[in-house]
């Protein structure tokens, strides 16, 4: 912890025991004990104490514990998925993706972490320091605070925690107050798999988040851009570094030479997966006028084939709550009022649960919120464009820059388009797949984030502080730089070193 003044937590909105309701049925999904923000400093202190031993185990020792946790997750995936469906109203198809993703991330990092975290030998660079041996060590930041959203309560809770734990940090996880239950099971699994107490939970909303920020040495935040700005502001009070994974308005560009069926399948899956509640979902599509009708027809066909309902036998689940449904409705109403047409969906269904049908909108433009604000719901607005240049301009006309996709029969051309888009990742003839390229960074530009997750070794090193150790190769010449040298000897050494240093600039300046 830094030596800066502690910040007193504010009074919590969530206290005592809370009841979590299944958004698909209104039935009780489970109960949670909210954390008192005043207890967070103690929880962090416990983690801080346990972290030393975790760090000292070394990457190999930690990888073993993490491997056991991966096996535990596999053994308990049905229990986790059942609870996930109750907690979020997801379809079984959507719920089934989260545990495997965590297992794959664990497998990747347990395999690569030793090399990624190994000390690095560096040349001393300056000739007069040739007698030195320089190593850079990656030392974990003791307590990493992770503040998570609700859309993937399993994957979002742990996909960043895995990197932090691998790096040797302890993790204080604050799940979303909308989905606290699955995190409790994950925490139980960490303990039951025999791992030490370097993973703790703080359950609650803003006040608990703030206490986590105030007691962490690094904050990994995933959530909306508006909240991300508040997190950065709070963390700045103690100069705590942050990594922010924020909202998006991801565009898809469909060129005239694209495989239209493939593009339509991808658009529908990319927009409707998890009922549209995915940061990297396809939020808007720009289609070349020559293939527009064909594309729209294929999209509507695919959307109509989705089976709406939570759990087993369904492909498209409920929205997390009424607030999320209200945003979707507002965007659709605004679009209709400004001249858009609804081709399918667009009507709140009768009956229980916060369901909203997958909705395709056409005749849309950038005067409409559905094309400019993050919907985070099941809408697929499609805009006709006259040229790819127009599509690029419109795709970049956004405060967000998370990711994008380009569909073209010519991959070389699609790459050229990709490098004109202002965002953190572009998928060609596919959507969302960059998220699983663990060796590459996943991060947003503009208001979509600061920093990135994953990215191979960088995904672990971001949770570390670097410590440089400079040791002597030999004691001959030691102290040659100190006061006891004569001025003459110093001047001789300076002349020699400067002459050597200027060789390169002399060559270059010719
Ligand atoms: P949110 O910003 O409302 O909440 C996220 C977390 O922040 C929650 O745990 C919440 O309790 C906490 N929080 C709320 N107010 C806070 C405050 N003032 N200070 C500190 N913490 C506070 O986001 P959400 O509705 O849970 O999630 C949806 C958003 O997350 C969308 O914008 C989505 O795009 C984004 N998201 C981004 C990624 C990514 O990787 N870029 C991934 C998933 C979701």
The number of helical segments is 18
- Classified by CATH, the class of the largest domain is Alpha Beta
Average predicted local confidence, pLDDT: 95
Structural class: alpha/beta
GO biological process, one term: aldehyde metabolic process
Protein name: Aldehyde dehydrogenase
Family: Belongs to the aldehyde dehydrogenase family.
Domain Aldehyde dehydrogenase: 19-469
Summarize the topology:
Elements: E1 17-21, E2 28-33, H1 40-56, H2 58-75, H3 77-88, H4 92-95, H5 98-117, E3 120-122, E4 132-140, E5 143-147, H6 155-167, E6 170-174, H7 181-192, E7 199-201, H8 206-215, E8 218-222, H9 225-236, E9 242-245, E10 250-254, H10 260-272, E11 282-288, H11 292-304, H12 322-337, E12 341-344, E13 359-362, H13 369-372, E14 379-385, H14 388-396, E15 400-401, E16 403-407, H15 411-418, E17 425-428, E18 441-442, E19 445-446, E20 449-450, E21 453-454, H16 458-461, E22 464-472, H17 487-501, H18 503-508
Parallel strand pairs: 5-6, 5-8, 6-7, 8-9, 10-11, 10-16, 11-14, 13-14, 16-17
Antiparallel strand pairs: 1-2, 3-4, 4-22, 9-20, 12-13, 15-19, 18-21
Helix pairs in contact: 2-5, 2-6, 2-7, 3-7, 5-6, 10-11
The structure holds nicotinamide-adenine-dinucleotide.
The site of nicotinamide-adenine-dinucleotide (NAD) has 29 residues, from helix 8 and helix 9.
